[in-house]
Amino acid sequence: MYALAVKKSGKVAEFGIWEDGRWAWNVQFRRQLFDWEVEQWEQFHDNFKEFHFCKDFKDEHVWKRETSGNYTTKSFCRYVHVSNENVDRVWNYVWANLAPFRIEVFMWQLLQGKIGVKDELAKRGVNLKNMLQCALCNVIRETCDHLFITCRKSWKVWMGWCRMWGMGWVLPSNVKDLFAMWNEWQLGGKEWNTDQVLELARIRVATWVNAKWPREYPSALNVYRQPTIQCQLPKKGQERKGIQWDKPRYGQMKFNVDGAARGCPRPTGIGGILRDHRGEVKIIFSKPISETDSNFAEMMAIKEAFLIFSVSRWKNNHKLLIESDSSNAVKWIKHPDGAPWRMRKLILQTKKLKREVEGWEIQHVRREAN
């Protein structure tokens, strides 16, 4: 096909035309195709039939590793880490967003061995005049592993934590192994005192968990006094008013659809039920789809409803009402230009099916009424 094409390169707009708001491919060949070449062309044409163009959408660059379509350094690093099986999983704990950002950066530098300890400063050419001993014990050369683990001053702090939690533990020899088994901590103050450091750590932990999980830990003072006891608040039951399903109007069919996923992304499934103005069930569908997220599953369920109704015997004499408990899916069907980039293909496919249905509308309902 490539050898027979008159124009072998160019923009997509140069290989087709718009006809009644729809895109039609128009590829010119140097001669008339033989029968076996026509079959090849039809097979090639079928490969991109599922792709639909729309004048309402403008061409734009999209970064597929981010749901917004915009490039971020974080998404790039996440992609590199996931694609590289040899990457140490400890970095997932560092950037878990459980501590303030400056603490995460500090831990990342510490695990890399790039904290400004005396040993590291000497490697960078800083003249310390042979004063490389640890600032706490003043005995051994100050390295990251020594300062945070093997120094007898640091060791007392770790043992204080172990006694508080009732643990018997042999500390690892390096910071990276230690971090894999314990949460990070931060020290402060100019004068070293084991008891003060331990008290400071307890205060920091208490205020942190109170700010991070205020419902589970409502009192920072209680956490400080008994850090091993978790406070659990009783869940308040919320009474909801009774919601019932409403029958469609006469001459209208109602399709209630739903999609669900076990995670993001995980195996998903879609389903729907079509009923008339009497509430009688006419069609039921349910099937699994590929691994994706819940938003995509909700959109697939709506598309399936349009597809089924467009080939049903009620197509010409009934209007269609679709109800979904996904506000996002309903919003994207009503306003396709506001849909995320990864939904554009599905939106265009659904838009084509909407033309096959003369009268239709879609609305959002609560899950209890769907």
TrEMBL record:
CDD domains associated with the record: RNase_H_like
Domain RNase H type-1 stretches: 249-370
Record-level Gene Ontology MF annotations: nucleic acid binding; RNA-DNA hybrid ribonuclease activity
Alphabetized Pfam families for the sequence: RVT_3, zf-RVT
Protein name (database record): RNase H type-1 domain-containing protein
Organism ancestry: Eukaryota, Viridiplantae, Streptophyta, Embryophyta, Tracheophyta
